[in-house]
Amino acid sequence: MENLNCHNFELQSINGDEHQRLVCLNCGEINYKNPKIVTGSLILHENKFLLCKRAIEPGKGLWTIPAGYLEENETVETGALREAYEEARAKIIIDHLFSIFSLKKINQIQIIYLAHLNDNYFAPGIESLDVKLFEYKNLPWNEMAFPSVRWIFEFYKSYKNGDNLPFSKED
Length: 171
Ligand SMILES: [Zn+2]
Fold this sequence. Notes:
171 residues; 2 helices; Nucleoside Triphosphate Pyrophosphohydrolase; binds zinc ion; 8-stranded mixed sheet; 3-stranded antiparallel sheet; 14% helix; 11 strands; mainly beta
């Protein structure tokens, strides 16, 4: 187990690295600042889209797709399955990669799959107040928790049989 009290970081130059890095003066660990990876899925069922009403900030009370931070030692796909179950109690089948967003300002990479429900069941998980299926024409555009949720549905409009995949966008 790593001793988190050990660290005493100082900015240093490292051989072979163009950036200066925070290096621990005690144990030599390098504190790399890399983007965090979010994994999630746009889930379809009978031509409707599954959305979760968030029970926690940010975006409490607003709608989002099931998504969250990838855990250590987890694949991106397994993380998307886990998030669908945690937030919507949904067992999903992943169809394919749908979109990749590079959010430079908040230092985040979002990897979103297109998926469908394995059965009819879904229910609010601990991070959700409600889970619902929406037809495209009834999507809650003004109550979406994050800009990237809106982007996903804008991309979906131009999505046809796997053409243009994966969609990408940066901010
Ligand atoms: Zn240390």
